[in-house]
Amino acid sequence: MIEFEQVTKRFGSWTAVDAVSFTVAEGEFRVLIGPSGSGKSTVLRMINRLIPADEGAIRIDGEDIASLKPEELRRRMGYVIQSVGLFPHWTVERNIATVPGLLGWPKARIRDRVTELLELLNLDPRRYRGAYPHQLSGGQQQRVGVARALAAEPRILLMDEPFSALDPITRASLQTELSAIHRRTGTTVVFVTHDMDEALRLGDRIAVMDHGRLIQCATPLDILTRPASPLVRDLVGREEWGLKRLAVETVGDRARRQESVTGEPLAAETPLHRALSEMVARGTERLPVVDGDGRPAGVLHLSDLVRPTSGGVVPGGTA
Ligand SMILES: Nc1ncnc2c1ncn2[C@@H]1O[C@H](COP(=O)(O)OP(=O)(O)OP(=O)(O)O)[C@@H](O)[C@H]1O
C-alpha cells in the first residue's frame, strides 16, 4: 500500500505538488492523468525518492520512506520511463539482470528469470537475450524496459508514460501484456499517462491532477459518468463517449444469466465495446457468454448495451 499524506513539493517559488493525499491499495493499478505540468511525474518520482518531498509524509506498507535508504527503496520498486534508458553497451540479458545481480541472486536463478521475462513480454529468448539495445525496435526496447523493471519481482511498479512514444498497434499490445502481467502477479502499479483511453483501459482507479492538486480519484466508470469538474469532462472528451462507456464494463456485467443461445461464445470478461463489434461483424443481436471456466454464463442482447444504468448517459448532453 502506498499512502500520500498532505504531500507538497516546490521548485523555487513554484508549487508543483500541492498538499496531495491519496492511498493506492495493495495490488491496485492506479493511473495518474492530467494536463502537462500538473505534477504527475513529480508525484511518481517522489515515491522512489528521485525527488524528495518538502512537506507531508509518504508511506509504503505503513513505513515512512524518508526513513529508508533511497537505493534500498528503489531496488524494491520497478521503474519504467518513456525513453526506456537501457544501458547501450550491455546485452538484453545483462540489462534485465541489473537489479537481481545487485541483490546477489545466484547466476542460474537470474538466467531462468531472464528467460521467463522475455517469454512473458513476447520476445524469443534465443534470439534476443544476447542482442544489444540498438538492434531492437522501439517497442522491443520498451518490452525489455518493462522486463528489467519486473526482474526482481518488485511489489510496486512505477511507470511514467512508458508507451507514449510507440505506434498505436505496439502500444495496444503492450497495454494488453501489462494488464495480463498485473492480473497474474498482483503487483501494485502507478502509471502516468496523458491519454485518457489508456487510463480508462488500464486503471482500477484514475487520479486526475491539475495545477499540482488532486481533483478526482475514481473508477473509470465514475470518471466517465460522474466527472468532478469540467476539466475531467474535457479530458474524457465527448467523441465516442458511448464506446468508451462500453469499454469500461464487461459482457458478464450485463448478460442475462438464465438464457442460452447457440453460437461462438464470448468470455464474460470481454469489454462491451468488443461485444458490440462482434454483433455487428456476425450480424446478430444475441451472443452466448461463458465464464472463466468455459461454462455457459447467459446471453448478451444488443438492447442490453443501451439499457439505462446509473450514470448511463453522457453527463451534460449528447455525445
Ligand atoms: N527539477 C525541476 N525544477 C524546476 N521545476 C520543475 C522541475 N521538475 C518539474 N518542475 C515543474 O513542476 C511542474 C510539474 O512537473 P511534472 O513533470 O510533475 O508535470 P507532469 O504533469 O508530469 O507534466 P508532463 O505531462 O508534461 O510530463 C511543472 O511546472 C514543471 O515545470
Give a description of the structure.
With 319 residues, the protein is α/β, with parallel strands linked by helices. The chain folds into two domains: 2-236, Rossmann fold (3-Layer(aba) Sandwich), CATH 3.40.50; 242-305, Alpha-Beta Complex (CBS domain Like), CATH 3.90.1280.20. 36% of the residues lie in helices and 24% in strands. The chain has 14 helices and 13 strands. The strands form three sheets. The chain has a six-stranded mixed β-sheet, with helices on both faces. Strand 4 and strand 5 (63-64) form a beta hairpin. Helix 5 (107-120) crosses helix 7 (138-150). The longest helix has 18 residues, at 168-185. The protein is globular. Bound molecules: adenosine-5'-triphosphate. Adenosine-5'-triphosphate is lined by residues 11, 14, 16, 34, 36-42, 194.
CATH architecture of the largest domain: 3-Layer(aba) Sandwich
What small molecules are bound in this structure? adenosine-5'-triphosphate
Structural class: alpha/beta
The gross shape turns out to be: globular
Question: Do you know the CATH topology of the largest domain?
Answer: Rossmann fold
CATH top level of the largest domain?
A: Alpha Beta
Strand content: 15-25%
Mean pLDDT over all positions:
90
Helicity range of the residues? 25-40%
Span of the ends, CA to CA: 37 Å
Contiguous uncertain segments of 5+ residues: none
Rg over CA atoms, rounded to whole Å, is 21 Å
Number of contiguous helices: 14
- SSE pattern, N- to C-terminal: EEEHEEHEHHHHHEHEHEEHHHHEHEE
Tell me the number of strands.
13
Family: Belongs to the ABC transporter superfamily.
Domain CBS: 255-316
Keywords: ATP-binding, CBS domain, Nucleotide-binding, Transport
Protein name: ATP-binding cassette domain-containing protein
